[in-house]
Amino acid sequence: MRNDKIKALHVQVAEKLIEQLKAGTSPLQKPWSTDNLPTFELPYNAVTGNRYKGINIFSLMLRDYEDPRWMTFKQAAANEWKVKKGEKASLIQFIKATELVAKRDESGKPVLNEEGKPVKIIVRLDRPIVTTAWVFNASQIDGIPELRKKTLAELGWDPIERAEKLIAASGAEILNKAGDDAYYDILEDKITLPLKEQFDAPDKYYATALHELGHWTGHKDRLDRSIMNAFGTEDYAREELRAEIASLLIGQELNIGHDPEQHAAYVGSWIKLLQDTPFEIHAAAADAEKIFTYLTGLEQKRKLGNDMQPEQVPLRTKNTPISEHLTIGDKIEYNNTVFKVQGHLKQGRLRMEDMGTGNNFILSRNDNLYSSLLQAKQNPIMETGLSKQTALPFYQQTETIAPQVSRR
């Protein structure tokens, strides 16, 4: 434990992952299927219910606990649960990029609200701060309720159907043909997959498709990663690691399963990569989260489009100022939820949050949802003496085929 405290988290995780990759027992090598068994779950906080992200996933999964629930000592105590005697905590870390501070006027005095309390604002830090925390697994805790995992029948959706919808929402061009090749071709922006009937189970086909869709996000018009790399190179191994972690995340979200057999050939290159550059696991996990957010965001936008009622038009008064774009901090009521603009990304894209569900996604100015949100912003909801009309702008269900990326 002493040595673990001295080493940076990414070094600890890289060393443990290398050890398990060599033994064939790492999370990236463990298959799981969509048979009607309890669903697979990634580590999450037992109190908040939030999934841990980035490198923290591996920091906790590599501990090999069967229970996915984790918590801090204070969280356990607040719920009258007790850490078992002699148990040791596991390290996680967070990057703090913003801070909540008191708003001040021109003279430097705190600005107060109508109740006389200081108004708080979020400011971006000049330099992000890395903060650490120590958490315990539920199996290290006395008094915590027994874990009850849902079966697939209790999920409320069919994993195969949801995978098909996500792929359709991407607009990715996919070519199915006889053979063993599964890859994304960045020059043609197309994905090639074997025929569905060549797989011994439907979930394996979709798990492979989602892996290649991860590469597809690297195109310059999407997440813009460097993916034109020759097979066998270090950069090739980097991209494969990102896509595999992302497919694990998406597989868990959809409960589509995880089939590592298709990518077992990369294990040796991942071991060498992590030995040479331990920080790569941190960078790869962070990029995989971006892939996850991008793809699930596309699914979210498609769902919103399908739920729209074109005959309902937002109302606007003559005195309402017209905005020409969405800006950071905007909170827009739309389609029975509220969307918040969290930040700007490259190429005019926005980082968005659906405040109703907590889901994050990336929004392009070319997306129909952008136009709809802008129109909703320009046409705020009006109250009448009878009822409140939901702001639902006109929506054109036009679908363009997005360029595809192909890769082995």
TrEMBL record:
InterPro entries: ArdC_N (IPR013610), MPTase-PolyVal (IPR041459). Residues 9-116 form the N-terminal domain. It comes from the Bacteria. Transmembrane segments: none annotated. GO terms for molecular function: single-stranded DNA binding. Residues 161-286 form the Polyvalent protein metallopeptidase domain. This is Antirestriction protein ArdC. It comes from Pedobacter terrae.
